[in-house]
């Protein structure tokens, strides 16, 4: 039984484990001030072309989102998110638990645009409602779609004109930036976003996300927030080493490319068998709509999430590939299509 | 330069790293429902003799404290802590950030007693003050002292009689339970405490604490709290594997014994050289009071925290040993005493 | 210029002011334990037929909602509200500021039903989302509509079956219970709801809401919550006297009937002039859809809120009557219709 | 039985009740934007000599403290208070419930000084502790003592030099500013404090406190905070009218002078009878230390709080006078001394 349920079933890439074993023998400064964390931060600053950016390493996505958003907002300010946004639907009210409302917007492809946010601003205009202040987006989105440079640039202009912070959740940023059709780079993100995070958990690390803060207004005293929210690891080296390994060469992007490539192979098989997708995803999460009997067959050998019924005889499933997905499992999966539909 | 600054300078014990490397290749269920986490929880349940206890794995001490305390209390309820308690002085207001006051008690040796808590209860009696509801203790304490079975048993009785929860912070529990003079066991803790945590970060793990909840009243829906506070690791296996390794045999206690043994060697040298300690610590944190010129000399080769001045020519320093402290560094340190004071 | 903008433009009914003047000379026990508050609570207990209910007096609607909801819920639990619900759109994130998410449901007439809530329950099923626990409804709703006994009874059954609390915001409860078509009584509310509040601010008081808690599970230590949220008035007598006056005879319902009667007169004129309404409101808030040029004319002599455009030449306005609305102003308003459209 | 238990037993001064009755007939703009509130704010601005100050009216002291402090601080910032400070001991953790720690300082007379705060700053220096940011003081203090211009000026200088906000709780400000030995004025407060509130509840109003914000940095969007914390009264006029009446002439200070005068009469009798006080209070709260048998006698005719035992045969009691305390009750009380001790 092979699982396509998510991109966090396996542990870490061997290079990361090796680096951790090596660093384990050293005595490192605590709480993220060790040489590995400092170097990892510098490597990221180089990749994004912003020597002035703050880089902090946190343990997970929900933790990063709640720590950053509660640090950036005043009590009466709110985050704006797509209904499908991870902070809205899959973080157990973590942002609200820090006191902030999330204002949601219906966006069929998971992508926020200036037009969608303008509607929110029109509706929230005085002290009887929260004040929308931060725009939360994900790239890739929770349904696998990606932002283009044109849209993100527009969104950035709109946010700056309206005094909004633009924050990007990059839990699957590697997959987004190496996807077919992507024209964004880390440098672009650093230019367009006030803050964003580079996801490690879903791209080769045991765990860990790198929060990059570009807007100087959002930097002050952030380490206090890390500590207060339980996000400051005593052995910060453990995070630093992982990101050092991911970014000292090109490992972060190589791993993401592999994941996308594995998804692409499956997509071709789906299309060749005559089936469509729930969303237009060039990334490592895909949502093919398949006949129910075939899904039953597939589930004898493979694990995946059943997403939603689309008609009486068809259902969308979610397949997630990762840096660790072996090509032979993908091929075995693909063969099911050819066996079944030939 | 060797550091006695803390017990989280080194990474993980080699056995843990090996186990992580091995498990990294598997596909594990996410969010702490993997076989390693389940087995680790069972191993702990066996050691504490409570098959009904809940065991959850979290990433760090502050995170564990804030998640547990905010789960256990109603909004108007407070934690009672020694002034020296970690939640009071070293967690950046993490508990208050979840909405709860910490009521502090002066306890010179860091140990809370029924008498000290009774005074709080006498003072907090109606709705114009918070309602003390949870007693927070640490074993070993922040100044290295330990609880005895007699005191903990009394405290337990007192808490039950007064409707208070007894919660024990075990960041350095290994060191406490293997200290000279200790008469407590994990089984005792499970009997006396409503909840407690077994610290991994400071005893051989890369990171991680095991929260054990014995009082059924405190168990319900705790996984919601884990997720909301950003404490649920996607690859929960990473925590499970570490505690599996620590508890499948006796590694957890062996590592702690080593740390205590190293501290004991230093204590003998301190005493032989005619010096006293700030607190009566049988654990891996000791606070010798030394002449200032000798401290200056020591600091040429060793790193440690300067704790507090005790008179014009003497100062207490903090020395922390760990599972990773090599005996030869301890011996080199001890020789400084003999060289200087002979 | 006469204003139909809201039902809180005028101060208190003369009988309330007289009673306040009289009680001002007495020495009363503080913090709501005075004889007036105790008597007012008893009067309400009699009207609802529940001698066991808790009755607390608070200063305003937002305060009551945030205090009650944060008292009733655990940190990971959420309130379910119609999108139009006051806590969602008009309280500046007050509930979220206490840490709780509001899950919203689209309900065109502002009325929640078991079917609508079932959908929420289907969607929120594990620890990756909040746990829906409290159903928030308003009677009358924010758009003037009212609950029937049949719907409220169904909702009650559904909530009990699913372990949900049913909480009713009665900011305009007087108007709802005296509306044409209403078949609910205070006794019914006490039977169907776990808690509800009886609004004073919008029905004759200077300010004040009476929170009635029927479910014993929700009563404990509520006075701690009152104090902590800044809702416990030192001179609690000021609230007690007002509710004593409203409920010692039938003043509360008389005032509400007058408000409804004034709205009814306007509704007839609207209908006679051939116009419709945005919602089917039998209460003191009505939303006629009128020609833009007529609205312009009306606004020369009357104040009201322009609600929303319905087509190129028509707009819905909101008219609110109150216990203080003089009939001659209503008649003057009505005459504008007859003058304009004859 | 006459009560000296507190200064909130009676209702409002007759002039306030008259003004409320008159204003009740008007139609006023809602939410504190009415002409009475605007005029009351202007009257206060004139008295403090700061036309640029923001003035907001809230319902009570705890509410004002929690709303102001949570508006002024970032999540990791803390308030510094005397142990006796109202926010620390008598507000049910209201400030902590908004997420902020209160750091307490032992100050025997309830007065904070630069020296006392410097010690806190020395202790809280990095991200492992909260960041002290706001100094909370009360004038008069919770034990009746008052600040002098010299001390407040020093405190102000110290706070500005150290980037701290100085916030003054003026629940009993009238009594402080009219006390014997006081050399402070409202103008001084506006110069020295970043924000302070002028207490109405304990000085003639039914309820209400006027928050004055002088530091421009603390003003922005405060009305959002008012609404979010449930502190924005729909009929804001009710608060405006009361402060208009208190400040349009000199009523606020006349009422406070009366209270002080009544306390002074009792103090003379206490001293003449040979007894001392627990604190040096020139204000309307006094704490005479009396023989237990005499206290027993007094309690047959008068109500007051028994404060604390001072020796086997003596106890301190708390006596509070107010604007409403009749001189004949004071004289009757005094006669008990002369009867008993002659």
TrEMBL record, chains A, B, C, D:
Highest taxon, organism lineage: Bacteria
What cofactor(s) does the depicted protein rely on? pyridoxal 5'-phosphate
Extract the GO molecular function terms from the UniProt entry: transaminase activity
Residues of the Aromatic amino acid beta-eliminating lyase/threonine aldolase domain: 14-287
Question: Which InterPro entries does the entry mention?
Answer: ArAA_b-elim_lyase/Thr_aldolase (IPR001597), PyrdxlP-dep_Trfase (IPR015424), PyrdxlP-dep_Trfase_major (IPR015421), PyrdxlP-dep_Trfase_small (IPR015422)
**UniProt keyword Transferase present:** yes
Q: Which UniProt keywords apply?
A: Aminotransferase, Pyridoxal phosphate, Transferase
Q: Member of which family? A: Belongs to the threonine aldolase family.
Protein name as catalogued: Aminotransferase class V-fold PLP-dependent enzyme
The species this protein was found in:
Caproiciproducens galactitolivorans
